[in-house]
Task: structure prediction
Amino acid sequence: MIPLCREHQYQQIYEAISSGVSIIVVSGPMSSGKTTTIDSICSKDNLPFKTSHVFCDCGMEISDIYSQIAKSMGSSEKKPRSIRALVESIESSDHTAVFLDSFDLLDNIANDLYISLYSAIESGVMNNITLVFVSRSHPSHFVSDPISSFNIDFPAYSRSQIEKVVLSYHNNKEDTILQAKIRRVIDICEPITKDIRDIIFVSHKMSKSKLNPGDTEFGTQIIMELKQMRTQKECRVIGLSKTARIILLSIAIASKTSSVSDLMRFSRSIKRNRNHTKLLEEHEFVNLERVFAISKAIIFHHFDSFEIDISAYLALQKLVALGLIDIRGDIKVDAKIKCLASEIEIHSVSKTLGVDFTAYTLEA
Result:
């Protein structure tokens, strides 16, 4: 199904790939429907081309990306460490669209990767591949020598589009009272939450209210629904084991800081240099190995006798079941973890552990 209000971008991507465009750049702010649209393309039946959806993340090396591309295309299990090895590992001769999602998270290696892949396309050794770079910003923001490409922009959802998306979840779309209620919900929710799922949920609750949109109590009830949602989210962390709480806190810390900050805050292996050291970074997904390293450091600094063993993997399963984290990849090899917990939940866990979360996520 084509995502609502992203039909134009969907068609642009589809037609560009089908017509043989080699380099495509899909850019737009967070939560603008980029990945959802790509997922829709990849899940479409009877495509005239094959698809490969690769997710990039901070800390990955170029060889990691090559391996992900080869793996997603069903090629050899051997990890290619060069563009030549990647080309040799690709067995299929079918036209394939390779989506490199969150490309901007690759930071310093983005330029080299972009150039090497482009060169392979231009030289003809990957003439059956369409590369689609998916990023929150245009490559000119993080690639030193941007090369011309077919650019597709995903703007943030407008107010009218938000109304359209929210209204699509209701059956009686022509009901003028319902429309007024939804507009009132958006008026109050939009400055508080940027998550359109929150607005959809609250509008569903308020559509059943007997209050009129113009009533003061209507607005009060919307705020109460939002607060209740946050309370319910916080309830997910109540009763978690100490291991699960430490791991969840570590994931949250890792998603907001750099690897350098781990060394500076958890060891004395390097000298602190506030003027030249970057401690804070935003990562959507973080390496499981780094999460475990931070967890062990927290235990060492804040708890006397406590160890992470096989219970850590049970804790991860619990966190996934509660919707507090998302895991991508093989948990025993190169798993990536995304923190889905709210700020309220993280601070709640931090408080119960007696560990100051802000102390680890502020510039030193």
Notes: The mean pLDDT is 83. Residues 216-235 form the longest helix (20 residues). The radius of gyration is 23 Å. The chain has three domains: 7-153, 159-235, 242-360.
